[in-house]
Amino acid sequence: HWTPRLNSHHVSPHLLDLLPAKNGEEPTIQFLLEIVDILTNYVKKTFDRSTKVLDFHHPHQLLEGMEGFNLELSDQPESLEQILVDCRDTLKYGVRTGHPRFFNQLSSGLDIIGLAGEWLTSTANTNMFTYEIAPVFVLMEQLTLKKMREMIGWAGGEGDGLFSPGGAISNMYSVMMARYKYFPEVKTKGMSAAPRLVLFTSEHVRDTGRVIPADLEAKIIDAKQKGYVPLFVNATAGSTVYGAFDPINEIADICEKYNLWLHVDGAWGGGLLMSRKHRHKLAGVERANSVTWNPHKMMGVPLQCSAILVREKGILAGCNSMCAGYLFQPDKQYDVNYDTGDKAIQCGRHVDIFKFWLMWKAKGTIGFEQHIDKCLDLSQYLYNKIKNREGYQMVFDGVPQHTNVCFWYIPPSLRSMPDSEERREKLHRVAPKIKAMMMESGTTMVGYQPQGKNVNFFRMVVSNLAVTQSDIDFLIDEIERLGQDL
Amino acid sequence: HWTPRLNSHHVSPHLLDLLPAKNGEEPTIQFLLEIVDILTNYVKKTFDRSTKVLDFHHPHQLLEGMEGFNLELSDQPESLEQILVDCRDTLKYGVRTGHPRFFNQLSSGLDIIGLAGEWLTSTANTNMFTYEIAPVFVLMEQLTLKKMREMIGWAGGEGDGLFSPGGAISNMYSVMMARYKYFPEVKTKGMSAAPRLVLFTSEHVRDTGRVIPADLEAKIIDAKQKGYVPLFVNATAGSTVYGAFDPINEIADICEKYNLWLHVDGAWGGGLLMSRKHRHKLAGVERANSVTWNPHKMMGVPLQCSAILVREKGILAGCNSMCAGYLFQPDKQYDVNYDTGDKAIQCGRHVDIFKFWLMWKAKGTIGFEQHIDKCLDLSQYLYNKIKNREGYQMVFDGVPQHTNVCFWYIPPSLRSMPDSEERREKLHRVAPKIKAMMMESGTTMVGYQPQGKNVNFFRMVVSNLAVTQSDIDFLIDEIERLGQDL
């Protein structure tokens, strides 16, 4: 039960009394401290394993209003006390993605330094448009991107890059740069200035989900014979479901042979570059023309934090700059090469760099390495635990390359049933049923999906440094508890 | 001078000791409270007019390290004390975009409720991918978008929409939807499946920067005669420099006549829909097929917060959904229509809704109306103050439609000089010189730019509720102080 802790003579009833803060400094700061109290309590509980991961309700239940939690907006303002209650309720009915037993997404965890970085970023409330309004953040972005390019292996960390709102948009940048590199006239004349371009990315996969180089080459030749123009190959470094790494060196050979742009989508797997033990899985990445790498996935940086990195200098600006004099003035008193906004397809751009920069300062490169190595060790622990355990079947053979462990849980009722369409249909329904029960009991969350001819299976991933072996054990116990009678 | 306030026996030297918080709860919370202390001090000073807007340094100065502020990243971790110092320095050398005398960008101000909303959002650290992991935020997005569609005037608030990372990306969604509406085969067959499409947006403008409908129609006819296919017209509601509103009803007539998609880019001007006094400037917006509206601009919501709204239901999903079974499972226990992620071009999507929803709760619709009306009143105050003042010349005639007031300051040395190329060149250099001096003295910031044949002029905008008439007076005094001897 919520008790107002503000002294009533300090509390302004409405938002408008908070501003300007100079005339209402005390209530403003009091209100922020009340919010911080709510948030620090949430942080404490998030890491407490006796707290549930979520308190599940259906959409119609939340829309009808839970214990007075009213989502509807109105013409009239609410009191600050009610705003505090709304904040508590928002957290109460949400999902604790930082909980050590939340394994549902590639992004998880709640890094305290990253969190502090986000709080500071929102307090600074500026944008990455120009050096003029974001001098420190613009420089942090440049220095951090250079470090990332060094990790990729580009000589001297040379090249260019940007932080973008996510992996899909980073990948879009790579396609735009490739098109500009080979057909720059598209920028001014449109797509009709280019021939029919073809992009290649993995869909046909072998058992582990990796691209087959010979198959890729055959498809390139086939496209050319049909009169199309192959432009771009995407090599996935850490696929979403299997965590598979495409063989970059073999693909790079093909790209060189046919003069194609090589992009490495390391949104999920890029973080492994920080680990001396695991970076070999991206061998050849230095041969890529561009790389997507999302620190908000494997490296535990709060959302959003995704980088597009490119080897050739100048191409990012060449591709995207509009040289709009009304946005970027050349006659400023400082070096306007630091006005990076014209490289972006966005005008305003959120400051995604600071939390990452601050985490790197706080952990050092070796801290990220420890993070990566620990998460991969935990996945190996899970793999070893279940690979020969009764009631489990792995989706693909061999040790996982990333933290992805894909498996079926086979309830006792299906264990002796011979393979058949009926059994497959039954097995297909097992993971969704267990997942629904997990969510309703609120104890843990893990993803499932079908893939190709494989019926629904669990995909376990670990990217949260707070996870321990006991949490892995808990997940397996929970699957067995919920699934034994299916 | 910074004094460590953490008790040394509570302080862990490094980040790794903060996690998991369960075992290091005290230092974790202590660290967060230290951060909050830094941030609340920053908030207080931001609203204190005796504080500078910025403490300007050139890029090379910051890169060399100011008083020990080292931007470089290293292999080894830093102590938590140093992290706190880094946070202070980051704010110290940044720009106070919430300061009542910062007028440099369309986004300004520091709304305390919005700030609290961002702090909560980053603590929740989830993404808008599915109802499963963001149940409350997904519903808030739906309800808020519906309210925005009601403000636009679409019957019953029907339609669809999304929050995107910014106005440029919202506008891109509109182009993609228009293309899908008329040429759906582009989704599967590529651009070669469509004819040569033409988009229209204002470049040829009259004095106030508004589109001339007859000119638009002539250009559409011309494009058709050349064999192109007109697809899309963008009507700008609040242009960046002049704050001009295109005549939407007249443009809508033309779009209906030629069967074109009408998009209204209200990134800057959309906020005026909240004001009964000013919404007539967007008359006809309900006839648009899609609307971009950035609450992070005129409505003072922290960055990033931009919405794309569309009148026709189903087209957003139709255009963007990939139905990837590995991302969106149809066999969940809840109504998966709430899994909005498949409508977006992104996979992970930052939670931009909460701060806006919380501000709407706290202010009510009438609070936003007061915000809009106050900012436009202040611009009118500026306009009235300088329109006949010696040494000022307005860039366009008449009362500004938005908060944009565009003007030249003419130093005494140029006032009696007859119009000539020499005078124009001299005048062109005035605004950059004054701006550079403003930044170096740190007292205020306002934007300038050339536009078409107009040499550099100042563009004043107001979107921060903390601004008062005295701040407008200050700006004019400061321009005259810095510019009188030029």
Features:
11 strands; homodimer; six-stranded mixed sheet; Aspartate Aminotransferase, domain 1; glutamate decarboxylase activity (chains A, B); 12% strand; Aspartate Aminotransferase, domain 2; alpha/beta; 486 residues
Give your account of this protein's structure.
The structure is a homodimer of 486-residue chains. Chain A has 486 residues and is an alpha/beta fold. Among the domains of chain A are: 8-96, Aspartate Aminotransferase, domain 1; 126-352, Aspartate Aminotransferase, domain 2 (3-Layer(aba) Sandwich), CATH 3.40.640. Chain A has 14 helices and 11 strands. Chain A has a 6-stranded mixed sheet with strand order 2-7-6-5-4-3, sandwiched between helices. In chain A, strands 1-10-11-9-8 form a 5-stranded mixed sheet. Chain A is globular. Chain A starts with 24 loop residues before the first helix and ends with a helix. Mean pLDDT of chain A is 92; it is low at 1-13.
Per-chain topology:
Two copies of one chain form a homodimer.
Chain A: H1 25-46, H2 59-64, H3 80-92, E1 102-103, H4 112-124, H5 135-152, E2 160-164, H6 167-182, H7 186-189, E3 197-200, H8 213-225, E4 229-236, H9 248-258, E5 261-266, E6 290-293, E7 306-310, H10 315-320, H11 353-386, E8 392-394, E9 405-409, H12 412-415, H13 421-441, E10 445-451, E11 454-460, H14 469-483
Parallel strand pairs in A: 1-10, 3-4, 4-5, 5-6
Antiparallel strand pairs in A: 2-7, 6-7, 8-9, 9-11, 10-11
